[in-house]
Amino acid sequence: MRKIDSLLSEQKKRLLRRVNMSVQHQELLHIFPKMMADPLESGAVKVHLGGEGYNRKTLNRVKRSINKQQDLKLSIETCRIYSLYHSLHHYKYHTFLHCKKEWMNLRVTTFGSFQLRKRSVVIMMHHIIRLIVLLNLS
Q1: Which domain holds residue 85?
Q2: What is the DSSP letter of 14?
Q3: pTM
Q4: Which of 20, 64, 65, 68 could make an S-S bridge to 53, C-beta 3.0–4.6 Å?
């Protein structure tokens, strides 16, 4: 897991060199695990940041005093870089949520133990491949 953390951190640092991101924007991207973008007629993008906070070590949800959604207005290129930075920062959490959802779906069905393990390995391999592709695109 440390290797994945170091790869993610390295890629985030590379992205920060490509854009002048303020400390406040970095903190907002770190705090909120959900990010949505709406194009504006002016050619800019309105970015909505929201979602429940979580502990980065345990991936458990935590209650924070900052639950209000935050909005940013960015250029299209800056939005693309912010989005990639946000995806890298929250990658483990989003993967965890996806695997948890898949696992719950599998538990509802009546697969045998071997089939459950096989399916879990396939899900994790899919996410590892997605991470490698994501890191190679930046």
Answers
A1: 2-137
A2: H
A3: 0.74
A4: 64
